[in-house]
Amino acid sequence: MPGPAPKHHSTRARVNKTSTRATLHEQPEGEVEIPSLPAMRLVEKKRKYRDEDGCLQTETRLEERPWRIETQEFWEDIWSSPMASEYHRRSDKHGLLRLAVLIDDFWTAPSAAANIEIRLAQKDYGLTPLDRRRLEWTIASAEKATDEGQKRRGATEPAPRRGDDGGPDPRLHIVS
């Protein structure tokens, strides 16, 4: 007895569509609105000293420090990138600001631990090619390059391989 007939492809329950799929476009140079990075950032400074009794004490105070140039460049780059169109300016700005603090700390005192934290924080914002692929974000210029490459390959015929000229296959001498 034969089994049930297969379902029509339009009635399948799973269609493998991702809600984050998007094609991102380069933003024109003059039309980019970059949220302002706070003028300074607060850094916790600790000072150890001995009190009148000779006991070791720690004093903690907050100090303002200007942003490093690398952090300022990072901030401008992410907000002028094609991915910026997917960010919600009012809510994502805070997470990206925390990422900027991590980057500022890394360039002040580079460490493997800071690098790991940066790498983990970047994942949420599609800042690496692998993360963009996971989010199914495609940059329009990359699509254009792929299309042009396929057109080029289609326009030129590949060179004939050995044995494609109608003669005997040169690999046949191995099996005889």
Quick summary:
The protein has helices spanning 69-79, 89-108, 112-122, 129-135, 140-155, 172-175; strands at residues 22-24, 40-50, 56-66, 137-139. It has 176 residues and is α+β, with helices and mostly antiparallel strands.
What do you see in this structure?
This protein is α+β, with helices and mostly antiparallel strands. It has a domain at 66-138. The chain is 39% helix and 16% strand. The protein contains six helices and four strands; from the N terminus they run βββααααβαα. The strands form two sheets. A two-stranded parallel sheet has the order 1-4. The chain is elongated and about 95 Å long.
Strand content: 15-25%
Q: Which sheet architecture does the biggest sheet show? A: 2 strands, parallel
Number of strands: 4
Widest sheet, order of strands: 1-4
